[in-house]
């Protein structure tokens, strides 16, 4: 299959808004081995991308109050205890998308980095969207693990739309695309024009995906939970060794962190945005505002 992207014509002008749909708290030391054990706030990032022809596209859907309903009973209640969540009705991706003048049913595509609750919490609010997931995540949707296994994998199946499998495609089944990035040269073309390229970033969870936005005034690389702390990007720092037990593939996770760090050094102009790193989210927001 022919590569799209690098060989295609000029990419269309896209707009990117970085939204935060709720947050949780957790020990800072899990994300940075030299930090203290105090609890810090982790925002749940949602990116709203507006494409001139393809319309509104989301990367992840953040938290919604549905998280609290789904974690009332054991064993899911363990999840809520480990990562206490703050989210109000006005914080949801759907509410913020509507405030931006887009009806939730107009959202055409939702790219899901992975299936953890802070990334799929709002998935039910976008009834017309096609979902793009990594194959490993799509297999989890199709097999619908029992509640204990689900919680062990950080999943709350009740957050997923009942028809998600029918509306989902595996990123790996989309046409191949060149990213133009060093170290991560290949991905999958979302729209056929090379403007949005899904890039597998393995390790954190099955089928974990990043999304490269090439048609924005500044190139933006949304990397989900490929690294939690900004120091993964800026210093190649690994999280606390305990994170090994929260990761699908610890070796791949470390390799991905090293790759993102090398990429950041080689391409300082690229806005690399992990989902839970407030400083890199703020930096990307002001860079995007400066070029608007
Ligand atoms: Zn995650």
Structure, explained:
- The protein is an alpha/beta fold and 292 residues long.
- The protein has a single domain (15-290), classed as 4-Layer Sandwich (Metallo-beta-lactamase, Chain A).
- The chain is 28% helix and 24% strand.
- It has eleven helices and 13 strands.
- The chain has helices at 28-31, 66-70, 76-82, 93-99, 117-120, 135-143, 147-152, 164-167, 230-235, 250-266, 278-290; strands at residues 15-27, 39-51, 55-59, 85-86, 109-111, 130-133, 168-170, 176-178, 186-189, 196-200, 209-213, 220-224, 271-274.
- The protein has a seven-stranded mixed sheet. The protein has a six-stranded mixed sheet with strand order 8-9-10-11-12-13.
- Strand 10 (196-200) and strand 11 form a beta hairpin.
- The chain starts with 14 loop residues before the first strand and ends with a helix.
- Mean pLDDT is 91; it is low at 1-8.
- The structure holds zinc ion.
- The site of zinc ion has 5 residues, from loops.
The tally of structural domains comes to 1
The level of helicity is 25-40%
Could you give me the name of the CATH homologous superfamily?
A: Ribonuclease Z/Hydroxyacylglutathione hydrolase-like
- Strand arrangement, largest sheet? 4-1-2-3-5-6-7
Largest sheet: 7 strands, mixed
Alpha-carbon distance between the two ends: 35 Å
The average pLDDT score comes to 91
Ligands, deduplicated: zinc ion
- Please work out how many helical segments DSSP would assign: 11
Shape: globular
**H and E order:** EHEEHHEHEHEHHHEEEEEEHHEH
What's the short version?
The protein is an alpha/beta fold and 292 residues long. It contains eleven helices and 13 strands.
């Amino acid at each position: 299959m022919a590569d799209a992207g690098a060989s295609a014509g000029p990419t269309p002008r896209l707009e990117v808004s970085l939204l935060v749909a709720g947050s949780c708290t957790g020990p800072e030391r899990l994300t940075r081995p030299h930090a203290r054990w105090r609890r810090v706030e982790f925002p749940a990032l949602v990116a709203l991308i507006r494409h001139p022809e393809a319309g509104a596209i989301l990367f992840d859907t953040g938290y919604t109050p549905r998280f609290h309903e789904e974690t009332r009973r054991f064993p899911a209640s363990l999840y809520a205890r480990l990562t206490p969540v703050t989210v109000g009705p006005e914080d949801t991706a759907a509410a913020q998308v509507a405030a931006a003048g887009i009806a939730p049913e107009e959202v055409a595509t939702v790219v899901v980095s992975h299936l953890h609750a802070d990334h799929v919490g709002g998935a039910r609010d976008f009834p017309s969207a096609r979902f793009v997931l990594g194959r490993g995540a799509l297999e989890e949707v199709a097999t619908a693990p029992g509640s204990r296994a689900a919680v062990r994998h950080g999943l709350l199946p009740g957050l997923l739309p009942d028809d998600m499998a029918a509306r989902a495609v595996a990123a790996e089944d989309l046409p191949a695309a060149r990213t133009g990035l060093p170290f991560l040269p290949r991905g999958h073309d979302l729209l056929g024009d090379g403007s949005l390229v899904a890039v597998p970033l393995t390790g954190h969870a099955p089928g974990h995906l990043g999304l490269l936005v090439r048609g924005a005034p500044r190139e933006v690389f949304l990397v989900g939970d490929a690294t939690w702390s900004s120091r993964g990007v800026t210093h190649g720092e690994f999280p606390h060794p305990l994170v090994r037990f929260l990761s699908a593939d610890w070796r791949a996770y470390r390799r991905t962190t090293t790759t993102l760090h090398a990429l950041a050094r080689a391409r300082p102009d690229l806005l690399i945005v992990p989902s839970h790193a407030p400083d890199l989210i703020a930096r990307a927001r002001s860079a995007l505002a400066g070029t608007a």
